[in-house]
Amino acid sequence: MREKNNRVNFTSKLGVVLAAAGSAVGLGNVWRFPTEVGNNGGAAFILIYLLCVLAVGVPVMISEFLIGRHTHANTITAFSKLAPGKWWRIEGVAGVFVAFLILSYYTIISGWTLYYLVQSLKGSFLENKDYSACFSSFVSDPYVPLLYAIFFMLMTHLVIARGVQSGIERFSKIMMPMLLLIIVILVVCSFGMPGAGTGLRFLLKPDFSKVTASVVLSAMGQAFFSLSLAMGCLCTYASYFTSDTKLVKTAFSVCTIDTFVAILSGFIIFPAVFSVPNVNPDEGPGLVFVTLPHVFNIAFHSVPILGYLFSGLFYLLLLLAALTSAMSLHESVTAYVIESWGVPRNRAAFLVSVSCMALGVLCCLSFGVLSDFTVCGLTIFGLFDFCASKIIMPVGGLIICLFTGWYLDRKMVYNELTNEGTVTFRLFRVYLFLVRYVVPFAIALIFINELLG
Ligand code: TRP
């Protein structure tokens, strides 16, 4: 039987979808996805990515939803409740730990977007200057990026401290529609730029010669990251779903919105990038912070008002996306602290914000003072991102699938996904086949291939 639920819940269906989509749509879509597309050769990467979302992302998301909603508890407690005294609990612990780790470096990049928003409003991108040097000197500064990161963390903190309904749900309902509107405006603007044709060709014409095992692993890591999977973030949100929330439908909606936003971000960025001579799409993480300001400057030199508008809206988009995702990372740790340590929400949120920021200082300094400190050739920031998205997330996805596919009672899984038989789930067998065989096998294969290669 399902547990009696006496925690707070999201109050509406729209709130559920927008909060979960808010978690998924983030820097991963607007900053990381175009970067990965640029580095991994364009359209072929996108196709593999779509396949990963359908075959791996959707089943894992459904599994997370069912674990969260069934237990109505934070991730660690959820695994302990479903498998008392078993090792599965470690997945819950890893989830909360990695959410904390990701939040620490996510906040730093989000701080950059805040700084760039301020710069674009000041009109800095209308001046002719060396944007690469500006970016390097900004990120390597020991104080300024940190200040912006702290400010961003404060915004996240204030939302989380207000709670599930008047914090997370309310702000998601305001910010997500704004975000979607901005995307549409920017896509239209970008299509009007001279490089639109070349940009679209880059995004739509696949070159399979560039596809290697490592490209496939990157696509899968990107899918996990972008859909907020494998770390229990969505388990936590799902624990606030009501008993009539349709889990499968919600998972499909969230995956669709997230994928649309990622691809549309590509449609915003690449036409703009190809509109300017001597700018390459494979710039890496600097793509939206170095390449784009340069593009804004050249493309809109003669019509500064458009420059203001385009750049301001773009960084506002990044900021909104980052904020709704940071909220979910924060909530997943905060919910654990509240429920397991018995600390009131305000204090729990404060504890998480401050300790996460302390770790964030290390990530932040790894672009400057600590840039020579490397582990296996990676800076602290690179190491955190590598461990999270290339190792812990795929392994976490694997464990979640094995857990729901093999450990949990099949009848209980079916009942949870169909709301005790009141909604139909015709593809239940397909889902079960995917989580039992296909996803674990695919993740293991790609992993082994990468290790051997
Ligand atoms: N999905 C978010 C993005 O695209 C980031 C994110 C939020 C996340 N919560 C997560 C990533 C949980 C992994 C796990 O930017």
Your description of this structure?
- With 453 residues, this protein is mainly alpha-helical.
- It is built from 18 helices and no strands.
- It has helices spanning 13-24, 27-39, 43-71, 75-82, 89-121, 131-140, 144-161, 164-191, 196-204, 213-226, 233-238, 247-273, 287-299, 304-341, 345-365, 380-407, 410-417, 428-452.
- The radius of gyration is 21 Å and the shape is globular.
- The structure holds tryptophan.
- The site of tryptophan has 16 residues, from helix 1, helix 2, helix 5, helix 10 and helix 14.
User: β content, as a range?
Assistant: under 5%
Give the second-level CATH assignment, the architecture.
Up-down Bundle
Instruction: State the name of the first-level CATH class.
Output: Mainly Alpha
Write the H/E string, N to C.
Answer: HHHHHHHHHHHHHHHHHH
Roughly how many Å apart are the termini?
Answer: 47 Å
Biggest sheet character: none
- Name the average pLDDT: 89
From the structure above, extract its key features:
binds tryptophan; globular; 75% helix; mainly alpha; Amino acid/polyamine transporter I
